[in-house]
Design a protein that fits this description.
The protein is of the alpha+beta class and about 425 residues long. Helix content is about 35%, strand content about 20%. It contains 13 helices and 13 strands. A 5-stranded mixed β-sheet has the order 5-6-1-7-8. It is globular and about 65 Å long. It starts with a strand and ends in a 40-residue tail after the last helix.
C-alpha cells in the first residue's frame, strides 16, 4: 500500500498568530519585530505585498510603516510557542506518523486512498489526497484561526516542493498533491534550483554553471557527477526527487547537546552589577530548560560583546567553567557562572549583548556520582523538589513569579518590547473580555 508524505506549514506564522487573537488586524499589513524591537522578522501577506523587506532595522523604516498604516508588534514568543504546540496537537490525529520539523512546520506520513475516493474510506493505492488536505486545513483554521499550506508527495523533498506550489498558486487553495498528478515534470520545472530544499547558495551556483536550473533538471542530472560534488547527501536528494524515499520521519527529536540563552540589552550595560544580573537571569532560564529536558550540564560558558556600530573598539570575550558534578540546580549553576562575569567585565566597554551556554549535557537518569558528592542524597532530593515547585509556580502564574535574588528586581537592561501583544493562550489575565446583550 502506497505511503504519502505531507508537509503542513503555517503561513506567515508569527503574523498569523497575532491576527488569530486580534481579529481587528486580520487582513491588514502587519510586521513583527525581533528582540528589543530591532528589525523586522515576520510579515503578513498584506505587508509582503507592500514590498516591506525582511530583516530591515525598524528605526530605518518606522516612518514609512506609519505612512502605510502597517501594524507593528514586538515578538511574543510565549504566544508563538503555545500556538505551535496547539497546531501540532491538531495535526497529529490526521496522520499516522508525525515529525515536528520547526515551530510552524511538520512532516506527516499516511496511506494514500484509492483513486476517485475523496472520503479516503477505500485504501487501495493511487488516489488523490487533496480533499483530505482541505479538510485538515479547514480544521486548523476553525480550531486555531491559522492559515496553513499542505503539500503532499511520495517523499519529503517532493512534499516541500508541493507545499511551495500550494502556497504560490491561489488556484490550489493551499493544498497540492504532487503524487496524484499525471505528469509531475511541468511542476518540477516551475521550481527554480535555488528553491529546492537542501540546495544551498554554492550548490545552486554549481548547478547553474552546468545548465541545471530547476528541480526537474536536478532530478535528471547524471548521478555520478552529483555524487562527486555532493557525496551521499546529494544522491539522497536526487533519489527523493525521483520519488524514492531516503529521508525517514524523525518522531522523537535527538537529545540536545547544548542549551543557550542570550539576549541583546535594551541599553548598554556599563556596570558589573547589571552584567551579573543579566547573566543570572539568562542562567535561571537555561536551568529551567534543562530541568524540562530532563538533562544536566557539565560545563558553562558565559559570553559578552559590545556593539560593533557604536564607534568604539569592538570587544567580545567568553569564559568557561567545568562543573565537578553535572547539575541542573540553578543555585549550583549560578555559583559557578557568576564569577565569570567579573573576568569578562571591562569598565570602559559598554556591553550590548550577553549569553549563557550550557554544555556537556547528559540525561538525568545517567548521572555519574563520585565519592566526594557535594551534598547528601536526601538533601539533593529536597533540592529537586524545591526546584520542581518553583518551576510549577512560574508555569502557572507567569515567568518571574518566583525568581532568584541575583536576577534583580527591575533591571534597566531588560529587553525592550514596547509593542507586545497579549499572551491570551497562556496567561489568564490576558484573556479578552466579550460583552453580550
Amino acid at each position: 500500500m502506497a505511503l504519502a508524505t505531507v508537509l503542513i506549514d503555517a503561513n506567515n506564522f508569527y503574523a498569523s498568530c497575532e491576527a488569530a487573537l486580534d481579529p481587528a488586524v486580520a487582513g491588514r499589513p502587519l510586521v513583527v519585530l525581533s528582540n528589543n524591537d530591532g528589525c523586522i522578522v515576520a510579515r503578513s501577506a498584506a505587508a509582503r505585498s507592500l514590498g516591506i523587506p525582511m530583516g530591515q532595522p525598524y528605526f530605518q523604516v518606522r516612518r514609512e510603516l506609519e505612512r502605510l498604516g502597517v501594524i507593528v508588534r514586538s515578538s511574543n514568543y510565549a504566544l508563538y510557542a503555545d500556538m505551535s504546540q496547539r497546531l501540532m496537537a491538531t495535526i497529529e490525529p490526521w496522520v499516522e506518523e508525525l515529525e515536528v520539523y520547526s515551530i510552524d512546520e511538520a512532516f506527516g506520513r499516511l496511506h494514500r486512498p484509492a483513486a476517485g475516493d475523496p472520503s479516503g474510506a477505500d485504501l487501495r493505492p493511487g488516489g488523490d489526497l487533496t480533499s483530505w488536505g482541505r479538510r485538515l486545513r479547514a480544521q486548523v483554521q476553525r480550531h486555531l484561526g491559522l492559515p496553513v499550506a499542505v503539500g503532499i508527495a511520495p517523499t519529503k523533498v517532493l512534499a516541500k516542493i508541493a507545499n511551495r506550489l500550494a502556497k504560490g498558486d491561489p488556484r490550489h487553495g493551499g493544498v497540492f498533491d504532487l503524487g496524484a498528478v499525471a505528469d509531475p515534470d511541468p511542476w518540477l520545472e516551475s521550481v527554480a534550483i535555488e528553491d529546492v530544499w537542501g540546495i544551498g547558495r554554492q550548490l545552486a551556483r554549481w548547478c547553474r554553471l552546468r545548465g541545471v536550473a530547476d528541480a526537474r533538471q536536478l532530478r535528471d542530472l547524471a548521478s555520478g557527477e552529483l555524487r562527486r560534488r555532493c557525496g551521499v547527501v546529494g544522491l539522497r536528494l536526487q533519489e527523493e526527487l525521483r520519488g524514492r524515499s531516503c529521508l525517514p520521519l524523525v518522531s522523537l527529536p535527538p537529545a540536545k547537546q547544548e542549551t543557550c540563552v542570550s539576549r541583546s540589552f535594551s541599553q548598554p550595560v556599563t556596570t558589573l552589577t547589571d552584567l551579573r544580573e543579566a547573566i543570572a537571569t539568562y542562567l535561571s532560564r537555561a536551568a529551567e530548560k534543562l530541568r524540562r529536558q530532563r538533562q544536566r550540564a557539565g560545563a558553562i560558558t558565559v559570553f559578552v560583546r559590545s556593539s560593533p556600530f557604536d564607534g568604539s573598539r569592538f570587544y567580545s570575550n567568553a569564559a568557561t567553567v567545568q562543573l565537578p558534578l553535572a547539575s541542573n540546580d540553578t543555585a549550583v549553576l549560578l555559583a559557578a557562572a557568576l564569577p565569570l562575569a567579573e573576568r569578562l567585565f571591562r569598565p570602559h566597554k559598554p556591553l550590548q549583548k550577553a549569553g549563557v551556554l550550557l554544555q556537556q549535557l547528559q540525561p538525568l537518569e545517567q548521572l555519574q556520582h563520585h565519592l566526594l558528592a557535594p551534598m547528601p542524597l536526601e538533601q539533593q532530593q529536597r533540592r529537586e523538589a524545591l526546584l520542581a515547585t518553583i518551576d510549577a509556580l512560574n508555569r502557572r502564574y507567569g515567568r518571574g513569579t518566583v525568581q532568584w535574588a541575583a536576577c534583580g528586581l527591575r533591571p534597566a537592561w531588560m529587553m525592550r518590547r514596547s509593542r507586545l501583544s497579549r499572551a491570551a493562550t497562556t496567561r489568564l489575565s490576558d484573556l479578552p473580555w466579550v460583552q453580550a446583550g
